[in-house]
């Protein structure tokens, strides 16, 4: 196994203050079981899971409480043994609301329900895929795409490169870093399992150069592994963790514009924490019911990397970290570049919650955005080679058609444009507005076409 430097560098990108020193050296700590969990049925990309429990039911740790509800969907299992207190709409980390199972946890937590352990060396590809699906695993890096779907390419598509995303380029976040340092052996097992599912592809482990401890741990864990496996050291540049840009940096391939996917260029990208979860699900029968979340920021008494049951309220995470030094001026679910501001610590973690940031007054300031001065900084920063200034001005003029012609649907919403804008323009929010309008129009056109087809069939 080799350690190499990336041969390719994408255009654009920015260097925000990373502030990872607050939690990077803090070993993962397990949170004591909270008294109450709020487990959302929508923790992933696609259709929410269908709730299969009712108020008053007693559930066991690991029990299925939400069935997969469609092709792009993921099942949900109970993170604890306890009694279902309510099934109600709850606000999620990204701002939307979804059905959530509120569990009043038992004082004593046993082993609960686990899936039968599998020997991945002798198990069939179908058995391994089924296990990933049954364990409720989705991408843990942020998007939450169903892992079993990603690992099952459509006919005619073949994975040539499995790329492990260990970049973790978002400021403050260190949960993936600690997973690589402390659980590199589980990541290796996950790679072996995925290679069997995908058919013996080459492996590239992409890690930014500012994580030497992780690179060393991975190099040691992967020593002696068979096949074409390399650790690719990426330059420190945001958004290096973006799927498309990581593919280019690691193997030099370019994913075309939407609706093209990485598999169209022979690549599958998985987050390192997802690989560890796959290994635990297969070898130990452990479903995805807990994850590591970085709790950080200058308003936190003691920043930590916390292994907590999914559905843990943010208030419980903060209390475990000693509370706050001052009332936070801003609370962010995720990182400072792509995370979402939340108004309450009653919001609960999901399978994709990699970080919780509490920022003090010195780190947050108010401003009034100004008109675009055509300086071009956003154009230089955009990793997708778009013209954010042109797009944002079109949206402000309610000219969504021009924004669509300027390829707004290719926007990653990474925030590099807004970060570099001297006028503090809300470029990302304007791009989101245009994309939402375009999606709504497309959905309406499809519904109209379906109605017309149904009417004609009659």
Please characterize this protein's 3D structure.
The protein has 458 residues and is of the alpha/beta class. The chain has two domains: 1-32 and 124-366, Rossmann fold; 377-457. The protein is 29% helix and 19% strand. The protein is built from 13 helices and 18 strands. The strands form four sheets. A six-stranded mixed sheet has the order 2-15-14-18-16-17. Strands 1-12-11-10-13 form a five-stranded parallel sheet, with helices on both faces. It is globular. The mean pLDDT is 95.
State the gist of this model.
By secondary structure, this protein is α/β, with parallel strands linked by helices. It has helices spanning 125-134, 147-150, 175-182, 184-198, 212-221, 243-251, 272-283, 314-320, 377-381, 388-396, 400-405, 416-420, 427-457; strands spanning 2-5, 28-30, 36-40, 50-51, 58-59, 64-67, 76-77, 82-91, 97-105, 161-166, 202-208, 229-234, 267-271, 290-296, 304-309, 330-333, 340-341, 355-359.
